[in-house]
Each structure stands twice: as C-alpha cells, then as structure tokens.
C-alpha cells in the first residue's frame, strides 16, 4: 500500500488531495485499488492494469544496497528508491525505478 499525493479534485469533492493506493497480483492480473482517504476508508473495486503478469518483485534501495523489505527509522524514514520488476507473459521482465524524494 502506498500514499499518493497530488490527486486532482476539479469538482471540489469533499476529500483530501492524498489517496491510499494498493497494488496486488491476483492470478495473472496486476490490480490497483484506491481508497479516497488515508484513515481506513474502504478501497473501491479493483481496476485491472495488466493481464499476463507471471511474477512481481519489489526491492528497496538504501545506500546502494537492495533488500526485499525496508525498515524505517527516525533518521531514515524512507528508502532512497524502490525498484519494481514485473515479468510479463510473452515479453519478459519490465523494470521501473522510483526515486523517493527526501522529506
């Protein structure tokens, strides 16, 4: 689960500009579910982003080293980057590196 800021609100709906986003792999589908609030509001129905995903991996990068999990601390609340690798049926691995802004 992630928190995403910058959620556009052109209609002025009564909600925050931050939303909770959950990505999950269900069978061969990459799905996204979004909750309108961070405070435990129920997420909406899943939206299928891609079919044919055979594997999903996440790695957290800290000081040049990668690990499958990240433990936040008071002096380092966020990793330097997050690497997401999806293996797609008929295509192979696709990798995206997300740099994490310093707080």
UniProtKB/TrEMBL annotation:
InterPro entries from the UniProt entry: Pilin-like (IPR045584), T2SS_protein-GspJ (IPR010055)
Pfam families: T2SSJ (PF11612)
GO cellular component, one term: type II protein secretion system complex
Protein name in the entry: Type II secretory pathway, component PulJ
Top-rank taxon: Bacteria
The organism of origin for this protein: Brevundimonas diminuta
An example Gene Ontology biological process: protein secretion by the type II secretion system
